[in-house]
Structures are given as structure tokens and as C-alpha cells.
């Protein structure tokens, strides 16, 4: 005999915009003041989701509302790696102490295929922390010190028929920048 619960499912109360802001540096603000207790930030981060339209939501079983995020909700603040080449594994720690291993389910994305002027700097790469409700994942911006560590690990490769420099993790190649002119190693595989 299959017994099913006849208790009605309660929908969370819609609160509209909540007075939270996640700054670009990963600091969470409530009513303009930083939340200083890290366990509280981690709790809120675990209830964070991203809707298909790109809005960020704090959702609990009882209430839900939208919050403002300046860039992305998380920052990758530490990198550990082992191996090299296609066997390399890159593990990132976020500002909420979540460890994420880059790979097919957690790709590194970068705006790698645009030429940069001498005065411009490359936009930072991002790491998928977890999936959102639709096609838009929750991301961590890779901090500048970690970005420098990644830059030290780059290898020539090819993406979309264009020579590039990138990193390997969990058997996946992630392009980070166009190859400089004259890089024969990268041109060979394209």
C-alpha cells in the first residue's frame, strides 16, 4: 500500500526586495552594514539561488525575496592544484569556505577571445559554484591573486579554432586569453 501525505504544500511568503547587497568584493551587507559573522553569511549563501531572468533570491521554506548583487555572489580566494597538463586538478576555496573543483560541472569561464588594448586589463575569470534554477549558474569571481596563480599554470591550446592560453582541470581545457602572436605551439592544434 502506497501512503501519500495529504498535507498541503506551503508556498514561501513573497517578501519582494530584501535589504541585502553583496558587494563586488564578496562582503554581504544588510541595511547598508556589513554582516560580520561568517557563519551567518554562509547560512544566507546556502539559501541563495538565481532565477532564469538573472535575479538573485534568498529562499527559505517560509520566505523568499530578491537581493542585489554588484557582480557575482562569491569570490574564489584560494587555489590548490595537483598534477599537470590534462591530469591537472584545480580546487578553489570561496569566501564562504566552499571548495569547488573546476571541471565539466564547475567550469571556469573567461572573456578570452577579445583582443585587449595596451591600456586595458583582462576581465577576471569566473568559476561556476552551483547551478541556478535555469541556465544561469551562481558564480565566483576569481580574485586577482588567484588569477595570477592561474596565469602561472597556463598552457597553449585551441578553442573554437583560435589559438589561446588556458588551464586544464579534471580533463577539461578552459581558455583564459588569446595566444600572443607568434605562439607556434598554440597554432599547431587549431
What does this structure look like?
Strands 3-2-1-6-5-4 form a 6-stranded mixed beta sheet. It starts with 12 loop residues before the first strand and ends with a helix. Helices cover 12% and strands 42% of the residues. It folds into 2 domains: 57 residues, duf1285 like domain (duf1285 like fold, Roll); 115 residues, duf1285 protein (duf1285 protein fold, Roll), CATH 2.30.270.10. With 190 residues, the chain is mainly beta.
Compact summary:
With 190 residues, the chain is mainly beta. Helices cover 12% and strands 42% of the residues.
Give the uncertain stretches in residue-range form: 182-189
Number of discrete domains = 2
Reported for the largest beta sheet, the result is: 6 strands, mixed
The overall pLDDT average reads 87
Q: What share of residues are in beta strands?
A: 35-45%
CATH-defined fold name of the largest domain: duf1285 protein fold
Ends distance: 61 Å
Structural class: mainly beta
Q: What order do the helices and strands follow?
A: EEEHEEEEEEEEEHEEEH
CATH superfamily of the largest domain: duf1285 protein
CATH class of the largest domain equals: Mainly Beta
What is the count of DSSP helices, taking H or I runs of 4+ residues? 3
Strand order, sheet with most strands: 3-2-1-6-5-4
Helices, strands, pairings?
Blueprint: E1 13-22, E2 28-30, E3 33-34, H1 38-46, E4 48-50, E5 56-59, E6 63-69, E7 74-82, E8 89-94, E9 99-101, E10 108-109, E11 126-130, E12 138-142, H2 144-151, E13 155-159, E14 162-169, E15 172-178, H3 184-188
Parallel strand pairs: 1-6, 7-12
Antiparallel strand pairs: 1-2, 2-3, 4-5, 5-6, 7-8, 8-9, 10-11, 11-12, 13-14, 14-15
Amino acid at each position: 500500500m502506497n501512503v501519500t501525505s495529504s498535507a498541503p504544500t506551503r508556498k514561501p511568503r513573497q517578501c519582494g526586495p530584501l535589504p541585502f547587497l553583496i558587494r563586488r568584493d564578496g562582503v554581504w551587507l544588510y541595511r547598508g552594514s556589513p554582516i560580520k559573522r561568517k557563519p551567518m553569511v554562509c547560512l544566507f549563501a546556502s539559501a541563495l539561488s538565481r532565477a532564469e531572468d538573472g535575479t538573485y533570491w534568498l529562499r527559505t521554506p517560509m520566505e523568499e525575496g530578491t537581493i542585489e548583487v554588484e557582480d557575482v555572489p562569491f569570490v574564489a580566494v584560494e587555489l590548490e592544484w595537483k598534477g599537470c597538463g590534462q591530469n591537472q586538478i584545480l580546487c578553489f576555496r570561496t569566501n564562504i569556505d566552499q571548495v569547488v573543483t573546476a571541471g565539466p560541472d564547475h567550469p571556469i569561464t573567461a572573456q578570452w577571445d577579445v583582443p585587449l588594448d595596451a591600456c586595458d586589463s583582462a576581465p577576471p575569470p569566473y568559476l561556476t559554484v552551483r547551478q541556478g534554477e535555469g541556465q544561469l549558474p551562481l558564480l565566483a569571481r576569481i580574485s586577482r591573486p588567484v588569477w595570477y596563480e592561474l596565469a602561472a599554470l597556463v598552457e597553449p591550446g585551441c578553442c573554437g579554432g583560435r589559438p589561446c592560453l588556458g588551464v586544464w582541470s579534471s580533463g577539461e581545457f578552459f581558455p583564459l586569453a588569446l595566444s600572443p602572436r607568434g605562439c607556434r605551439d598554440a597554432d599547431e592544434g587549431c
